[in-house]
């Protein structure tokens, strides 16, 4: 049994101590707790194989044993008795999400996760995973069918159920009507739609919903009268490899406001697609032309016409509102199929309006009915709207089943994103399920009864119910804010009628309702008539910094606070009953505030005196309490203004500590730059001087102040597709400082992260302030207290040399290692270089240090208005810098490739003859010797530097081979042998033919491409190259980038980039000291294609011998290890000279068999000891086996190797592959070493050589 299970059970007993009621429900298997330990979901496995769950909160069971899984059309259940629990994994995530817009600026993404991996030994599906996550505000679970070779299985129903532990009270969504409820669970009979909000006691509230619905029908719940059990009635998609269900979500709070404030649904959706830039998405208030139709003011009659639109745009611009929404019929009668949504009645007026709106800074939304959306090509329509410059699309009256509507909604949302359009779905839309995280342009939808829609009004009780039911699902477009509350058929078109509310309540509701776009329904004059309320509307400057439901009860009342940069805004609303509300101001920061209070008048009433209000202004502190009087159907509005000292931080020092407090940084803001002092164990290491930019020939010389700071802490792990370790730890603390210049108020953001491994910072430029500007220079300085020793190379493939900081000449490639003192080394470099100019390092203009120099200008628009990360790693030994190189990966975005099954590391052998005969022999050799790939290098499609060489054809370069080479035949043969084929393509063909060759190579069956002699350095070359990697991923092609490119961690984001050169490898015949310099310097930034040689003459004449080559294969990491670089198998055709010559024939023996068996990726890596340029000892683990590489560039050396990394030394057999004689560099000697109980092994290494100690775990039985 998993020992974790025992821990869980013990924890559960402690947690439930004294609660005997729980004992009968104690599950037999696994429990997942929320991070705060207040919630628990327990999973139980029954004898028939079925899984059930139980949910408890604060020591009380709220959902008792409820079923999980599926029922197939074959009547089998998944899982059933034949299924086995193969593995159980868990993890903790402590992250933060920063939405572009939402209820708050920073969202904690903290959860505990359990994955139960189920195996079906016979039948389909072959596997299933149950994934459970526990958050502090609820639980979620989903079903996954892993990618693989399994078949598609038809599903009859989902078995998920919610068996409530009591006859609680519930409310439900009810379309454009008042919500269903309150009703007792046992009184419910039939189907219900989510959100289902449940009150299980005075301090227990739940909401049932779903998140991240990719396939299948949207959630429908079903119950049977007399029971408290609700089942999932909606039909799921069929189970096929790669299937993931929607998350089933149980939100929980001790008040209903916790449900409304939750971000759990969004957190269960993925981050935005990296193909799209959503920086253009701006939330805000909008005016609207639909409800104004027919209103008359001072002789002007409002209608859906250009003069009215201009009047509304002027009002929006005056108040700082962002949008005007044009509703139905602007292109003709919306339900008539002849109404063309591009060329219709008022299309020319609309285009004229769009230009006018742009001049006034007001975006224009366009309405599109489903009839026009389907009859006319939707792609062309939305592209036209985007080309016109429209801000968004309001899509109405979508037809189809709920499943069809969900698919169509997703399609329109993505098309809108492609055309930079916001989108609002109206008239019975599919429920929100958190998709605005993935698609931030999906700002709202009418998942409610919008006021006055459907020719009827909603009552006050409906509003204060909807916010605790419908709005839990996500943003809702409710059209609150009508100020002409006595309108009727004679004053407005569309069968208008009086609105049962008060003016104050209408204004408050605009704040209470969460929506990315709040749409105001009335004419400007009615808003201007009540200036205090208009100021309250204008103060709603989204995005919100914080939102919180301060008080409330379902169907009774609500008090909502939302924070802007300038103020705290509070809105309160009640049902048909008036009430007094005591409101503590403890949610405010410490200080004094000016509070404007707008309340219903003493005689106000939602039916008889809607307009009565009173306004007072008071000076209050966070320790005070306000008493608010709400009339029946009324409300209250508060504007609590921040003082300037709360908004702007002047020159100051901001402190940051690493997670273990090993390191700390002082970030000093003041004057023309920001300095970061970095300390390691209290000792100052380096000062980084930032903001040293020149823009379009003008240096940024402004004084900077901090206008805002945001902090977050991350403590998580992630599993790479491959790497030097199977699990990567990502722990850091971050501060994000918004900087503003005192001269022109331009803004930029400096993000600073501090890990235990080092410091990283990057710049982000405000898009409007720096629109299309060009960075011409960056001189970020890294200054030390004395003249330190450093190791540099001017070229990525160059030799390293040792010098002092004062002796630096020219620009050095990064990373650059500097020795600060006897026990401290730093590495300076950059990470996440994707679309910027490469940074190199040169001697600083003042002091002892280095400063950045760019390899070309940077257009900020192309760079996405942010820089790569600049980093300083710190360690006590140069080997520790390399061991911690996951630091660079952590600074890159997570993996963007959904299915990575096709990405496979392994050894690669080059086919040197470029003939069919040689290819077949090479493939046979590879298959026999565990070599995964055969590479066809330069020459297979012609002379690589000739622009006329066509990489879509096989035309062997006669200067390299006489051929013939039948590549299709070779690929077919390789596939039959389980060997992959890789091909080389030079930059000249890449630039001309990339979009043609990638799909072609996929069709041929090629597994990967080696990009040769690529351009590097400047921004265009950098952006093009990483785009070429992304394009290769689209066709499931792996990539190796050769020559001067050095990695900055992009293989985390696109792991099809397996390796790259940018290294002084065996092609340059490096001496062993250069190899050790390379190991301690170049390998900090990532994998290196070292082109490892073995039989070539240079190995014994210029390098450390064949035993050293074995050691280099372990020490120099590359997921694709290119082996036998100049060698050919014995059965390949002979060559007169060069690669594959008589001297370079592979001869198989025990040493080469070991050479062929060395893994290329690892589960664990440790640098045990060494010295720069002299020797290195590296231990790497694959599975249970350890490979210890020792390289010695100096004289004979004795190495004492501690064995503390072995759990039980007696279980291991040790084999040493080494060079016994200084004269016999072509001989690898092999000997067994008995470990017994020794705590260390002593190895004698001769000079200029290497060895590998293979520690293999004995397999018993």
Mean pLDDT: 92
| CATH architectural type of the largest domain | Distorted Sandwich
Return the CATH class of the largest domain: Mainly Beta
Radius of gyration: 34 Å
Give the count of helical stretches.
Answer: 24
Please outline the major beta sheet. 16 strands, antiparallel
- CATH topology-level name of the largest domain: Beta-galactosidase, Chain A, domain 5
End-to-end separation = 21 Å
How many separate domains? 4
Strand content bin: 35-45%
Q: What class do helices, strands and sheet pairing give?
A: alpha+beta
Low-pLDDT segments = 1-28
Helix amount: 10-25%
Number of strands: 73
Question: What global shape is seen?
Answer: globular
Verbal overview:
The chain is of the alpha+beta class. It has 24 helices and 73 strands. The strands form 13 sheets. The protein has a 16-stranded antiparallel beta sheet that branches. A nine-stranded antiparallel beta sheet has the order 43-44-45-46-56-52-51-49-50. The longest helix is centred in the C-terminal third of the chain and has 18 residues, at 987-1004. It is globular and about 105 Å long. The chain starts with a helix and ends with a strand.
List the helices and strands and how they pair.
Layout: H1 3-15, E1 30-33, E2 39-45, E3 51-57, E4 60-67, E5 70-72, E6 77-78, E7 84-97, E8 107-119, E9 127-135, E10 138-144, E11 155-158, E12 161-164, E13 169-173, E14 180-184, E15 190-201, E16 204-211, E17 221-223, E18 229-232, E19 247-253, H2 256-261, H3 264-267, E20 284-288, E21 296-297, E22 300-301, H4 306-319, E23 323-326, H5 347-360, E24 363-369, H6 370-375, H7 378-388, E25 392-396, H8 402-418, E26 422-425, E27 442-445, H9 460-466, H10 503-512, E28 517-520, H11 524-528, H12 531-538, E29 546-553, E30 557-563, E31 567-574, E32 579-584, E33 592-600, E34 613-621, E35 625-630, E36 635-641, H13 644-647, E37 652-657, E38 663-670, E39 673-680, E40 683-690, E41 693-695, E42 698-699, E43 704-718, E44 728-741, E45 747-754, E46 758-765, E47 774-778, E48 781-784, E49 789-792, E50 801-804, E51 816-821, E52 824-831, E53 839-843, E54 848-854, E55 858-859, E56 869-875, H14 878-883, H15 886-890, E57 906-910, H16 916-928, E58 933-936, H17 967-977, E59 980-986, H18 987-1004, E60 1008-1012, H19 1019-1034, E61 1038-1041, ...
Parallel strand pairs: 20-23, 20-28, 23-24, 24-25, 25-26, 26-27, 57-58, 57-63, 58-59, 59-60, 60-61, 61-62, 64-65
Antiparallel strand pairs: 1-2, 2-3, 3-4, 4-12, 5-6, 5-11, 7-8, 8-9, 9-10, 10-19, 12-18, 13-14, 13-15, 15-16, 15-17, 16-19, 17-18, 21-22, 29-30, 30-31, 31-36, 32-35, 33-34, 33-36, 37-38, 38-39, 39-40, 40-48, 41-42, 41-47, 43-44, 44-45, 45-46, 46-56, 47-55, 48-54, 49-50, 49-51, 51-52, 52-56, ...
Helix pairs in contact: 4-5, 7-8, 10-12, 16-17
